[in-house]
Amino acid sequence: MGVPWGLGVLQGVDLECIRGQRRLFSKLSFTVQAGEALWVSGPNGSGKTSLLRILCTLLAPESGEVRWRGRPVRELGEAYRAGLTYIGHAVAVKDDLSSLENLRFALAQDGCRVAEAALIDTLARFGLAGREELPARVLSQGQRRRVSLARLPFCADRALWILDEPLTALDVQAVELMHALITAHLVRGGVVVLTSHQPIDLKDVSVQHLRMVD
Amino acid sequence: MEAVLDATPDRRTGLLAVFSSVVQRDLLLAMRRRADVLTSFFFFIIVVSLFPLGVGPEPNTLREIAPGVVWVAALLASMLALHRLLAADYADGTLEQLVLSPKPLSLLMLGKMLAHWLVTGIPLILIAPLLGLQFDLPGPALAVMALGLLLGTPVLSMLGAIGAALTLGVRGASGLIALLVLPLYIPVLIFGAGAVSAAVSGLSVEGHLSMLAAFLLFSAVIAPWAAAAAVRIAVE
Amino acid sequence: MNWGSAAEFFAMGGYADYVWGAYGITVLVIVAELLSLARRKRTCLRRISRRVTLQESER
Amino acid sequence: MALNIWRFASPQVIYPIAGRMIPGFMLAAAVLALAGLYIGFFVAPTDFQQGESYRIIFIHVPAAWMSMLIYVVMAFWCAIGMIMRTRLSFMMALALAPTGALMTFIALWTGALWGKPAWGTWWVWDARLTSELILLFLYIGFLSLHAAIDDVRRADRAAGLLALVGVINVPIIYFSVQWWNTLHQGASVSLTRAPSMASTMLAGMLIMVLSAWMYSIAASLMRLRIIILEREADADWVQEQIVPIAQGAKP
User: H or E element: which one contains D137?
Assistant: First the structure.
């Protein structure tokens, strides 16, 4: 039921966002083609996270709208959410569950059942071999983020990935793995929007850079 | 390295599978934190046992106040556990993922309400008749109390979930939940306690129980929608 | 006219405390509400004007 | 776009309009109150059952009706605010809530004062008084939820949703209490069931209801203007137009 490929175009049209009494940004427009990444950078508090939350419909923009393949995402509703994966700033991992359980429930909640072996294999690839059964409480911040990122290999049929600071607290090897994952998704014609303080340089895929000002 | 890049999932699951995964996860979390579950259970027992100490052991008065005491204690016990229903998920970001699930959020909220009811409601239903004996209630009255709680406690969980969702991330949320939710509990209290006192005095209880069933259906319709809307507001 | 004299009116057929108590509370509440609204408006305007003068002094 | 019509009702436009309407409503409220009280005290006869104490209904019933009506109007504005996403509607609801709560408070006190001579106790668990008490809890719930949330926009929508859930439950609560009351004490206790109303009594009461209505509108509009000022404090139309006027002549 994943969103079909082809014209994978994400558009922001005159987006405006007000948090508390402050206007974070206004008249913000951009277009991301299929197979292209949008790297959003900018100082803290410049509205990066708010922009991503607007893109995944968690937050409603003050004015302007987000369009997916030409249609406003408000109208698409569940269809848009079915083709979207969002990994937020907060690592959605429960301390009392093991990383295996966390991964299984995160995927089940998104409507996809995966064999146990594939889960363990993916966790191992994310450097969590041998730690699948430990409660997430004992894992480090970097390990917990890898547990939440371990979902991505299973979201290949989700056209749009929205990742908020996916590379924070990751070691070099994990960053490499993430670059490979993102590149693979773009090559498939998907769209990836991510925020990061380090520059995103991916080989032979186009990365659009959107700089947010304070 | 290559294999991990697109391990497409085995099968896209339907609504029921997503719903049961939400319930399963919450039950598993509750089992992992058994202490939380027992606190509201023991709270119920202690509150009910306080009244004879305050009112005096005289059986006639105890029998008179028993329905009200048990039902008010059930209200407070289920409200005590509400805060746990969503607050942890809101804090660690899992609630956001629930909002972004492709399945309708109101049905997933119904799953969370069901999990909350299984964890806090069922123990109350089982222990209440036992406590009723302390109040010298006759057999049929105990049965009506259990049946009334069976119909009423889900309503407490459902309406309570709305209060829990509205007060996510708010200062003094646990006190505020009581203020928001207790007025909504009043009809359930009136007919729940009314059923037991009718049973004690030998009157018919069908009317009371059918009203409780009506509240159950009514809140099953509005509570998931309202809780979902409240969660969307809180997650914004 | 129901009342022979002013005194009779204020006695209110023996229910003076209750009737005048009720009306007294009502008047009290209404006056309190209007006063608090006026005070709230004054503090709000004062805060805004202080902010305006502050901005002007900065410019 | 269709939504723009509502954008037109922006705080900046409504502020002066409300300002002009308030004196009119206040005057109407005063005139109606004087007329109602005159009829209530000087024209309406003594009640053969309750003597003079029944004259409290000229303030108790209007307050009770207004407390119920304001809650419904408040929920209406919250619904509009959520559907049309207009912030002014939420401000209107927030402006109404305190006045509604005060009307409930008045209804409770005057009810208790009315019950004392009739039943000898200050508080009568009469169906309508009990429902009025619960309505006060709903108002307090709305106001405290709104106050507890810092982000104003979230506070508006969360309290708005609570008002909607509340307004759906008000009739259920009312009939449950009504039923509860008849079960435990029988129907005779219903204190506030209007006594056999002479036409002048009814006229006096209805005029007072209208007066309470005018007053509630005026008070809410006054509070609306203040909320607009508080929320638009750093908007330039406030700083240029409103502050100078306030400092200079009366607006």
Answer: helix D127-148
Question: Contact B17/A111, CB-based, under 8 Å?
Answer: yes
pLDDT at B25 over 70: yes
ipTM: 0.89
Per-residue tokens: B60 = 């006639």
**pLDDT on residue D187:** 45
The CATH number linked to A34 is: 3.40.50.300
Residues A41 and A133 occupy one common structural domain = no
Separation CA A162–CA B96 (nearest Å) = 13
Which residues 126-185 of A have a C-beta within 8 angstroms of B? 153-154, 156-157, 177, 180-181, 184
pLDDT less than 50: residues of chain D: 1, 187-190, 249-251
Q: Do chains C and D touch (3 or more CB pairs under 8 A)?
A: yes
Instruction: Report the C-alpha gap between A90 and B65 in whole angstroms.
Output: 49
CA dihedral for B127, B128, B129, B131, sign (positive or negative): positive
> Which of residues 160 through 219 in chain B touch D, CB cutoff 8 A?
162, 166-167, 170-173, 176, 179-180, 182-184, 186-187, 190-191, 194, 211, 215, 218
Domain ranges in chain D are: 58-189+196-228
Say yes or no: A150 and A173 in one domain: no
Q: Using a CB-CB distance cutoff of 8 angstroms, which residues of chain A are in contact with residue D151? A: 19-20
Q: Is D177 helix (H, G, I), strand (E, B) or coil?
A: helix
Domain closes at, from A118, A141, A158: A158
> Which residues does residue A68 pair with via DSSP β-bridges, in sequence order?
A10, A71
Task: Provide the token pair at D143.
Answer: 């106001």
Return the DSSP state at A68.
E
CA distance B92 to D251: 51
Q: Are strands A160-163 and A37-41 parallel, antiparallel or unpaired?
A: unpaired
- Report the C-alpha gap between C2 and C20 in whole angstroms: 17
User: DSSP per residue over D198-241, as a string?
Assistant: -HHHHHHHHHHHHHHHHHHHHHHHHHHHHHHHHHTTTSHHIIII
Cβ distance D110 to C49 less than 8 Å, yes or no, reads: no
Per-domain residue ranges for chain C? 6-58
Per-residue pLDDT at B26: 93
Using a CB-CB cut-off of 8 Å, the residues of chain B touching A177 are 1, 4
Q: Strand pairing partners for A30?
A: A12
Please give the residue range of the domain that contains residue A36. 8-83+159-214
| pLDDT, tens only, C3-59 | 788 888 888 778 888 889 999 999 999 999 999 999 999 999 888 888 888 877 876
Residue B102 C-alpha, separation from nearest chain D C-alpha, in angstroms: 23
Shortest CA gap D226–chain A (Å) = 17
Q: Is the pLDDT of residue B3 over 50?
A: no
Chain D residues touching residue C22 (CB < 8 angstroms): 56, 59-60, 109-110, 113-114
Bridge partners, A67 (sequence order) = A11, A72
What's the number of domains chain A is made of?
2
Q: Which residues contact B64 (CB under 8 A, 6 or more apart)?
A: none
| Substitution target from A21, A22, A59 for chain D, most D beta carbons within 10 A | A21
Which tokens sit at B92? Answer: 């660690």
Domain boundaries, chain B: 16-235
Contact at CB, B13 and A108, closer than 8 angstroms: yes
Residues A111 and A206 in one domain: no
